[in-house]
Amino acid sequence: MLSVVPASAESRPVSVQAPAKVNLFLGVGDLRVDGYHELTTVFQALSLSERIRLSPAETLTISVRGDNAAAVPTDDSNLAARAARALAERCDRDPAVHIDIDKGIPVAGGLAGGSADAAATMVGLDRLWETELSRAELSDIAAELGSDVPFSLHGGTALGTGRGENLMSVLSRGELHWVLAISREGLSTPAVYGELDRLRAGGSAPTVRDPAELLQALAAGDPHRLAPLLHNDLQPAALSMRPTLRRTLRAGTDAGALAGIVSGSGPTCVFLCASARSAVDVAAELSGAGVCSAVRTATGPVSGAHVVEEAEQ
Ligand code: ATP
């Protein structure tokens, strides 16, 4: 049946929500000739999220609100601006949009906040401009913007290979409960990879690990089985650059978390807890321990970037 879209609907602002990610497993392989490392990673999308509002405008403009907004560029280097330009070019139109970013994800925290903004912008503009691009086409554009952007679109729990952009959904039964220990001072992702290369130079070649056991624990939905299998090859590099994170990790497990790891390139530390109740207790204890600047609880997995309908706002 033919549906008639009112002319005014096209110019209505669109709101999008996009999740933070944690790497439950991050295996970093050799440095490739293109400068990226070969990765095997298991991502999970968390309930900590960005809110993006896209409104038609004369030219491309950006505003940023929320925690640490001053650390986020509002020029063309913002990943959301790059996403808008890439999509506009693909659709042969002007990137005439105002992007308002409400940061719920810490900046440079190893939680892919910038990637979430890029994914949210793509999903929102797809709706605003009625691009009719397929999910696969959006994912290809996302991969050109950054290694984590395809996962921010995908959401859920996924195995990532290549630079992390080749994704396969994996089964994660039930809900996992996380506590995040956030540091005010971020860590630069390229600098952490550089530190890993430095630590590895002269040492032994990277050990090849396999996430098979972790994937089984996820499918079984058993946080106790999953906890000892959480793994991040970037953690030694992040700890070398920020030694105080050792104290943060210890404080989380002392407080009753099943396990704690550095998230991606850090400095956020994420703690897996046995239940929602335990996560609240761990968060309360960590808040008082003076080992981080903020503490949040979150659950996973959640959906990737999606348009938020009026009733959800
Ligand atoms: P990842 O885990 O994907 O490596 P991250 O979570 O550690 O990334 P981001 O918050 O994505 O880090 O930001 C890293 C840097 O990118 C920031 O320091 C900032 O200068 C720049 N940046 C560009 N666009 C954005 C954006 N929309 N939000 C946050 N930072 C951005």
Describe the structure.
It is a single chain. The protein has two domains: 12-170, Ribosomal Protein S5, domain 2 (2-Layer Sandwich); 176-300, GHMP kinase, C-terminal domain (Alpha-Beta Plaits, 2-Layer Sandwich), CATH 3.30.70.890. The chain is built from ten helices and twelve strands. The protein has helices spanning 79-90, 113-128, 135-145, 149-154, 189-200, 212-220, 223-226, 235-241, 245-254, 276-289, and strands spanning 14-31, 37-56, 61-66, 97-103, 157-162, 166-169, 176-182, 231-232, 259-262, 269-273, 294-300, 306-307. Helix 1 (79-90) runs parallel beside helix 2 (113-128). The protein starts with 13 loop residues before the first strand and ends in a 6-residue tail after the last strand. The relative contact order is 0.19. Residues 1-9 have low confidence and may be disordered. Adenosine-5'-triphosphate binds at residues 71-73, 77-80, 101, 107-115, 117, 148, 186, 189, 264-265. Residues 71-73, 77-80, 101, 107-115, 117, 148, 186, 189, 264-265 line the site of adenosine-5'-triphosphate.
